[in-house]
What we know:
Number of domains of chain A: 2
Strand content of chain A: 25-35%
Distance between the termini of chain A: 19 Å
Mean pLDDT of chain A: 89
Largest interface: A-B, 25 and 30 residues
Oligomer: homotrimer
Amino acid sequence: xxxxxxxxxxxxxxDFNMIANRLVPREIAGELVMLYRKADGQxxxxxxRCPHRQAALxxxxxxxxxxxxxxxxxxxxxxxxxxxxxGQTKIPERxxxxxxxxxxxxxxxxxxxxxxxxxxxxxxxxxxxxxxPGWVLxxxxxxxxxxxxxxxxxxxxxxxxxxxxxxxxxxxxxxTNAKVKSTVLERGVRNEFVVRGLPLxxxxxxxxxKGMLIDIDYHVTCTIPCTWVLHFRAYTAGTATEGPPNGQLxxxxxxxxAVTPRNEDWVDYYxxxxxxxxxxxxxxxxxxIHGAPPAFLENKAVPEAQWKxxxxxxxxxxxxxxxxxxxxxxxxxxxxxxxxxxxxAMAA
Amino acid sequence: xxxxxxxxxxxxxxDFNMIANRLVPREIAGELVMLYRKADGQxxxxxxRCPHRQAALxxxxxxxxxxxxxxxxxxxxxxxxxxxxxGQTKIPERxxxxxxxxxxxxxxxxxxxxxxxxxxxxxxxxxxxxxxPGWVLxxxxxxxxxxxxxxxxxxxxxxxxxxxxxxxxxxxxxxTNAKVKSTVLERGVRNEFVVRGLPLxxxxxxxxxKGMLIDIDYHVTCTIPCTWVLHFRAYTAGTATEGPPNGQLxxxxxxxxAVTPRNEDWVDYYxxxxxxxxxxxxxxxxxxIHGAPPAFLENKAVPEAQWKxxxxxxxxxxxxxxxxxxxxxxxxxxxxxxxxxxxxAMAA
Amino acid sequence: xxxxxxxxxxxxxxDFNMIANRLVPREIAGELVMLYRKADGQxxxxxxRCPHRQAALxxxxxxxxxxxxxxxxxxxxxxxxxxxxxGQTKIPERxxxxxxxxxxxxxxxxxxxxxxxxxxxxxxxxxxxxxxPGWVLxxxxxxxxxxxxxxxxxxxxxxxxxxxxxxxxxxxxxxTNAKVKSTVLERGVRNEFVVRGLPLxxxxxxxxxKGMLIDIDYHVTCTIPCTWVLHFRAYTAGTATEGPPNGQLxxxxxxxxAVTPRNEDWVDYYxxxxxxxxxxxxxxxxxxIHGAPPAFLENKAVPEAQWKxxxxxxxxxxxxxxxxxxxxxxxxxxxxxxxxxxxxAMAA
Lengths: 348, 348, 348
């Protein structure tokens, strides 16, 4: 089950280039969508299925700003309306393909999978993206064989930093014990917290003075259905025990992550990570994104094994623990949104 | 659903050689069949399943003209009757495996999957094959992950030449607009038509004078369940506007194609293509068959994507267009034959 | 369906080493189990599923003799009881994972999948293993895509030596015609028989005088659910026509084999083979185990093809033959044990 009236990330903007016949097929929230750019660079997101014989339009060709089906040559405009049916002059009213609202923002391409009359760009989460002046962010991608609900539970679950990423991000139980200011939003959850006096993560220790300790100020927002934006600022360990760290800012970083469900079993996981130009060290953003894959792979291995077990034991016993509070919040907001959509569908 | 009283292509004759234990397993119309040659070169098509413990006879060994099961050593003659059961002298009447009628013709091996009393070699489609004196035809093969019904609809759908094979076979909308003399046969469809004043297909243009135009006289026959034979003759562009082209014959070619269903999801696609010796250019038949794979791969990609979408949207809306007439004819004959077989089964 | 109150082989003892985080995941009789060694070398077999969120414990880390879940850091002792839940001090009673009884014997690791109060080490089959003084046995492993019932039927089916292993183990119809003293045990079957005047198997003929004939004294025991132990002694062909061979002992060998079901479709097949030090030839045990894989692969190909056919034809006709007697005995004991467990479950 996926919310329909919502934005889903379909990839990074550079995934969609202007090569003549570059048509990019995706599966998003259970539907087959094909994306491309018009001559003016604007994106189009079109149902990837000809209404005639269900051929894949992504096997067709771009013609002007439209798409020519590769099977019988029907031509569809970027508005989804059929312009030509070879062999006949009359174009029936219902010869259309669905067009999905699509927006580019912060380096991401977003597709609205629901009712086009309810489209709301204000619902797109804020992020510092890879093209932001003053910032150096790198991007990457991985497919994950799990249900997206397990990914979003994982991402907002602070305690997971301690354990899943123990070896890679250097988690300590500071995360488990952090005092989190957690705010449940209309369509998401925002967490703010500071961890103090931590060693640097293993993969970055060689870049800073030996034994250096840091304070980190975290701002994390998860937006339903499946986006997660992290702003974290690292400071030399200071003396403040409450409020923002009072050491010297040594690293200002953003990470944007989207875990778009293809269907119930697979997620396309798009992620960025990087630093401000002011606080960067030459080569550090590459270290983050290339040092990060082991951490991101931990975000792959764990939810994949969970999903395998959940399918094997659908009624499997689930022990509740105190630290569940965080991990449960985003699934709860997801369920609220799903219920509201179901109720609206019943009423309609 | 597959017609049973019908010939299915099991491969090219050279797929079945005389290497000592060469037993070739196939899945045809949902049944597991094993094929081999006897000492005199005659083909045998035998159920690939021992009646004892369902072992695969294709894992056994040839012994004379029979097959020794590799599990408990039961020996079956080429008539399917058991000759030996190690450990006992009595051979029960029902110790048999099914033998399927099998015929070689035009380089193809044909298996009759239905009632052996109804076998009719006259139902094997006529083709010029790779061994025909005066002709130089090459053969190839590919598996396709689709339902055979989509392949046969595709093959008799002339408009598909325009679009699917645009880049490879140089289709133009001459095909979409061709006046076709279409004849629905007892067990198939025959189409005859001429297209005039066409440029040569891209992959062959360098072999002929620059800018040369041609007329092509097509005779195409699809035989249910799944064979498609094309005879096409290319002429220098003439002045005739009706009837056969009146230019000079520059290429006389045949292509035989069989899209044998393994089951509902997979097709074994066997194809040949080549020219008469008189009109060939040295190396041209190789150009056709090796230049053709991109075109044949188009016959793979499109029906595979369709089948994926049809399974995802079984009740998916299907727009009808004027050009459907061609593509619908062979599925209609197929349905008629399936209905007749079902009615006969009910009556029996 | 698998007997629960039974020992299943989880692998060779050397599969479970002391590398820091060596946690070995297995699927046994439908359940996910994770195995490791404690600091003292003792084995632990633990349910591979955290009771909290169904994370895989095999993705966690060893901590002392316990396991720290890699997701939220819950720590479980080797007794399955939770020792720590990060973020809280109270440990609920039901925060436990299942511990399976586990025993090492003859180089094998055995796990008891049923009621721990009924555990009975006496049910572990006797074998000479690879660490036995005076013996040189080698081990190997292969996965098989079949139902374990087909493997155990195969292994106790003497006639299969004649046919399946014709080319590799040099079977002759001596096996089909052997007079077998067959004893049905409480939980298995034991077969004893002598075959006389055989040529050596092809892969070993070059090691002995040309044309040499041998008598072989076989003792084979299959223990339900899935273990098969072979003791075979080869003698120069003697004059005895009954009772043990009276030639000279030239080879005293043991093979232990376990075909552990993962689930209904897959088997983990662990096997050993080797000779006594007294009768060995330097390099012979390697010849057996490396010469054996073709034979073991025959034990893979045949049951895999059978299983494919049985699933395709669940009600498929099965001809009975005289030689079935052997192959049917172990499945019959298996069925008896399954029925007894089902009856006990009903009564409980």
